[in-house]
């Protein structure tokens, strides 16, 4: 009997893609109707063959290696680069019936919040003209939104799956760190990068990852892939927990109710909380005090790791070589890197190099690592389930914020999941972004970064907003390795919200 995933994603005869290149078109520089309209593909595969019609269509972000299509990371320095091997996740999905329809546009090396920092130009949102699609996996989200692919994979470092999902009205899932192999993914920040999935609904994502057993597979090629014994221990820890909405406790982080939050998104957040209460869930406020420092810590740690990862792109050993000679007294590869990298990548390399310098490391990088640890402790304190990777600990009440509500004399209420907005605003116009500073763009990650720093699973689902073509993205966050249960809750909540 065919699996739930195969039944849900089976391609109906005659459906096809919304657009597809001619059989003779170049795979590395495809031109088609949807390419010129939304700029979400940077290269597409040949037309579907009859043998592939029983599977499902898959779009792959351009920083995930494929054997048959170039992997360019939307950067001039990797223009036309053909990987000698394929990413583990692509191989796993092909074995499960995936038919790769193309590589998707993105922010260069994953550095951005709107998919505008690309050598191929910005990705545009199909929900409205001249509107950002979100980044850095914007091309993958648009491919799913348009129906050009039934599923898409991308990467999420600080919100790069969840933010474009929120902007395009799709579902974006970031797994627990170490669950899905990163082998074959061009790294941005190794301690934060995860491979995620975008689809129209949470049920399809759960079927893809859990019904097919991908979540059980350790990859020996990826040192961050959780070992099999640890996976089994983590799975045993969450297996005892119920899946019904009735009896769940949902936390509303007080620190996420920021002044910049759009009133319509705040109302959608409140409405979703009321919907869960009507289904028997308890909804309570919780405090994550270090959340206010998480964004600053992230933009120290991620650029620091990026500056190290991108050092190999010098045009000598790796990357395209600039034809212009270096000037007297300049490093051998200065012009290659200057011409090959975009402005945002250069900015983050400089920022990361400075924070790793001997004079700044203690005040920036080390302090940011301490904040990251405190963010993780905040989450462990509010979740009812223990973190299976950490030793159980009793939190001292004196360490908690004064405003923390107490369930009883033993301590504060603990929750199964956290519910928050995914982004503080609706997607901005591309014309507005041209005059926006990098710091303004960084603010869009304020709700997604904390879960990334802690390595926790999170999923963004769309919530309809009356009078708006844009839905509000709502984010569920779970304890480590509680991914499947979180996706079940997301399925049910998405279904309830869509009925309004």
Automatic annotation (TrEMBL):
Primary location? mitochondrion
Stored Gene3D superfamilies: Amidase signature (AS) domain (3.90.1300.10)
Q: Where in the cell is it found?
A: Mitochondrion
Name the Pfam families for this protein.
Amidase (PF01425)
Tell me the segments the record calls region Disordered: 111-136
Q: Which InterPro entries match?
A: Amidase, Amidase_dom, AS_sf, GatA
Q: Which residues form the active site?
A: 61 (charge relay system), 136 (charge relay system), 160 (acyl-ester intermediate)
BP-aspect Gene Ontology terms: glutaminyl-tRNAGln biosynthesis via transamidation; mitochondrial translation
Instruction: Work out whether the entry's keyword set contains Mitochondrion.
Output: yes
Record's keyword annotation contains Disulfide bond: no
User: Where in this chain does the record put each Amidase domain?
Assistant: 55-487
Q: What reaction does this catalyse? A: L-glutamyl-tRNA(Gln) + L-glutamine + ATP + H2O = L-glutaminyl-tRNA(Gln) + L-glutamate + ADP + phosphate + H(+)
Spell out the subunit comment. Answer: Subunit of the heterotrimeric GatCAB amidotransferase (AdT) complex, composed of A, B and C subunits.
Name of the protein this chain belongs to: Glutamyl-tRNA(Gln) amidotransferase subunit A, mitochondrial
Organism of this sequence: Stachybotrys elegans
Q: What is the lineage of its organism?
A: Eukaryota, Fungi, Dikarya, Ascomycota, Pezizomycotina
